[in-house]
Amino acid sequence: MTHMSLSSNKRGIIKNLIYLSIPTVLEEIMSTLLQYVDTAMVGHLGEEATAAVSTTTTIGWLVGGAIHAIGIAILSMMSRAVGEGNHDRVKRLSEQAVFLVVLSAVVFGGLSLILAPYIPIWMGADEAVRGPASEYFFIISLPMLFRSAELICGSSIRATLDTRTPMIVNLIASGLNVPLDYLFIYVMGWGVKGAAYATAICHVVGGTLMFMVYRRKKEFAFDILSLRPDRKLLAEIRDIALPAMGTQATSSLGYVVFAGMVSGMGTTVFAAHSIAVNAETIFYIPGYGLSSATSAMTGVAIGEGNEKKLKTIIRASVVMTVGIMVINGLVLFLYANPLMSVFTNSERVIALGAKMLRLVAFTEPFFGLMVCMQGIFYGMGRTKNVFLIEAFSMWGIRIFFTFMVAKVWMLSLTEVWYCMIADNITKALLLTVSMVYTVRFAKQK
After folding, report:
1. 321 with 102: CB under 8 angstroms?
2. How far apart are CA 54 and CA 56, in angstroms?
């Protein structure tokens, strides 16, 4: 589907949004389910193996988030160029995307490999875990060129309103992870190292396939031997990408501090908290899938200069996302106990975690609204709005009040989750107010 075939009427826009979002939703769901399987396979090796893999997870999020931020900038600029029908700009942006894939691999890959021996120490890992954790992070960082291609080329393809192809590529790559894990971890007996090799191979396959698809798209046809940086375009990409990187870093570091404060409340409390957070993940994935499709459609509408269409996209996305999250919240509330039972046999952990899930179930629509608004702002290229609101709410509300609850007032996990809920609701409301102001008063370029 190209942007030329997108309808401008309300019914057509809703159909297009559904058509584009289904692949991204399926991609997110399958990727998360496969991560669950991957975690379970490593978990069977014992606590030290699990710790070795999880020790560097946060740093991995930061690295992936930084590259994803570049993808956000590319998607925003390219989708607008697609809407404008500016084929020359699309082509030039596609060249810069490849240049940024290589640059990201050199910068982030190089730093990851150099710092791999030190990261487990900085994260406070036990001495017995540091060696395997360092080796794991080093191995999964080796194919950074391919990881960058997966993210940046995938975002470029989605900017042309093709969400199906990246889904297929990512499902093939993720699907390989399970059999490779089994082969390397259990059959070959390589343990944590085997899990790392499986992940690295999947990135190589995913990145290779994504780049092959990228080069076959006629919109991106250029001579790769004549590739060179375009300072003007790179400056535009930087202005959008840097705040998005700030958002990713602010959010990831906030989660680390938040989890650290909860960990001091006792083993049972921390186990219930961690499992409940992981269990909730699958329920808000559809929101992220819709958000990705909305970003691309938003950029195209702005490029077309069609304000009416833009407003229709925003309304349709909000209604669909919130509607889905209402249903997900109801399911989460009703099946909180069985869901917790999937991850643990401890009755105390199940009871406490289920209580938290029922609590957060009522606020799932707000989380969906937050994710939806982020996607729209990213499509507009207004990443500063998201960064400022994320920084204020994460650190001014969630972290500050969790510190007061856990360290000063010595209250329970319920109050901690109230802080988390307050953070999500605040972000949803502030982003919505900012969006209303942006659409009503800002001039669309």
Report:
1. no
2. 6
Query: How many Å apart are CA 316 and CA 380, to the nearest integer?
Result: 16
In this predicted structure, the answer to whether residue 294 has a pLDDT above a threshold of 90 is yes
Whole-model pTM: value is 0.90
Quote the CA–CA distance of 287 and 14 in Å, as a whole number: 15
Domain boundaries, the chain: 1-21+266-445, 45-229
Please name the residues in contact with 419: beta carbons below 8 A apart, sequence gap of 6 or more.
397, 398, 401, 402, 405
Does residue 11 contact residue 153 with C-beta atoms inside 8 Å?
no
Which residues have a Cβ under 8 Å from the Cβ of 195 and sit 6 or more positions away?
A: 38, 41, 42, 53, 136, 181, 184, 185
Nearest to 344 by CA among 267, 402, 284, 256: 267
End-to-end CA distance of the chain: give it in Å, rounded: 24
pLDDT above 70 covers a percentage of the chain that reads 97
Q: Could you read off the pLDDT of 360-404 as tens digits, one per residue?
A: 999 999 999 999 999 999 999 999 999 999 999 999 999 999 999
Angle at 60 between CA 298 and CA 224, to 5 degrees: 60
